[in-house]
Amino acid sequence: MLRAMLSIAALTLSLAVLLAFTHDATKTRIQANRAAAEWQAARSLTGLPELAGPWQHDQLPLGDGRVLLRSTVRGYGGDMHLLALRRGATLTALRVVRHQETPGIGDFVSHHDRGWMAALAAQGPAATDTVTGATITSRAVLNAWHNLEATP
Predict the structure, then answer these.
(1) What is residue 80's predicted lDDT score, i.e. its pLDDT?
(2) Distance (Å, whole) CA 141 – CA 63
(3) Residue spans per domain, the chain
(4) pTM of this prediction?
(5) Tally of CB atoms within 10 A around 71
(6) Is pLDDT of 112 > 80?
(7) Alpha-carbon distance 94 to 111, whole Å?
């Protein structure tokens, strides 16, 4: 019995060390891939082939009266990372670039060009209801819209 417990403990320790090593070895690459995906989404959102940083307090003036904004809001499944485009005090577009919402229920936020996200972009948050079954997710996006419009 003691021998079996020691074997399980040794296996658990070995797997923990392997997991920690894998996490450390891939952390930089994952961060780089996330940053590249965010810049790709930013280029798509703005219609600009190139964007020049750096971000200034999560804002990037585009030089044509528009400002690219980034934000994080808490959804049902965790943090949702967003990009928004604002002209003056009006938000003109919003994209969720990364989230952990439940597949099939809250992943509608990934589809900016159709469904609820397209309706939000076309009608604004005042005319957009929350999504049944994904109330926390949709409220988080609506709150983010309001907060980003109010950002100085």
Answers:
(1) 96
(2) 27
(3) 1-152
(4) 0.81
(5) 16
(6) yes
(7) 11
